[in-house]
Amino acid sequence: MQNNKIHSTAIIDDNVILNEGVEIGPYSIIKGPCKIGKNTIIQSHVVIYSDVVIGDDCNIFPFAVIGGVPQDLKYKSEKSRIFIGNGTIIREHVTVHKGTAGGIMETYIGKNCLIMGSAHIAHDCFIGDDTIISHNALIGGHVIIGHGAVIGGLAAIHQNVRIGHNAIIGGGSLVNRDIIPYGNVYGLRSTLNGINIVGMRRRNFPTSEIDKTIKLYKFLFKPNNDEPKLFSQRIKMALKEDFGKFGREILQFVQEKSLRSLCTNNEKDDND
C-alpha cells in the first residue's frame, strides 16, 4: 500500500491487491480477492465485492456497487468475475453485476469508458472500449456493446442484444433487436434511422468511407423497387461490392448468429 491514500474509515480485506497511487475514500468497502490498478480513485461509500479486477487510472464515484450478485435465478454462487479496463469512469449509483455459468462467467467493461450515474450493467455483458452509457440506462444480461458506442439516458437494452461498434442509441429507447455497427437508433419502439454520421465525423473517419457506409445502409434497409425484396438476397449482392471498411463490418455483423432479430427502419420487419 506504499504511496496509497486510504481513509481510516475504509474497510479493505487483506487479500485485496492495491497498486501504487490508489486512493480510497471514506466508508468504502472492498472485499477480496480483488485487484485495483495504479492511480485508480475509489471515492467515498463505494462497495466493491470479490473477484473484481479494476485497471489503472479509473475513477469510481460515490455509492457505486461493483461485483454484486447477478439478478439471475439460475446463478448458484459460481466463481465469476468483473473486469474494468484502464481509464474507465464509473459515476454515482452505478451497479455492475458478475457473470454467470450460463454466460461467459465475466462482466467486461473496456478501457476509457464513461458509465454515467445510476446506470445498470447486468451479468455477462461485454462493453467495448470508449463506450458511453448515459444516466439511468439499463443494460440487460448477456448484452454485447461494441467499441465507441453511445447509449442514451433512460435507454433500456434487452438481454442478449448485440450493439455494433460506434452505434448510437437515443435517450429513452427500448432496444430488443440487434443494432448494426454505426447505426443510429431512437424511439420508444426503436427503429434504425440511418448511420451515426455525426459520431463517425467526430472520430475523424474518412469521408469516402462514411459515404460508402451510407450507401450500404440505403441498399440494405431502403432498397429501390428494382432491388431484391428479400434482405438475405441484398446481403448476397452487397458481399460482391465494395462498401468500404465499415461496410464490411456491417455485413459481417448481419451474418452472425444471434438470439435477436435485426433492428431495421421498420419496427414490424422480420429478417428473412
TrEMBL record:
Keyword Ligase: no
Keywords: Acyltransferase, Lipid A biosynthesis, Lipid biosynthesis, Lipid metabolism, Transferase
InterPro entries in the cross-refs: Acetyltransf_C, Acetyltransf_C_sf, Hexapep, Lipid_A_LpxA, Trimer_LpxA-like_sf
GO cellular component terms, semicolon-separated: membrane
Residues making up the signal peptide according to the UniProt record: none
Keyword Isomerase: no
Any Pfam family matching the protein: Hexapep
Biological process terms in GO annotation: lipid A biosynthetic process
Domain UDP N-acetylglucosamine O-acyltransferase C-terminal: 178-263
An MF annotation (GO) of this entry: acyl-[acyl-carrier-protein]-UDP-N-acetylglucosamine O-acyltransferase activity
Protein name: Acyl-[acyl-carrier-protein]--UDP-N-acetylglucosamine O-acyltransferase
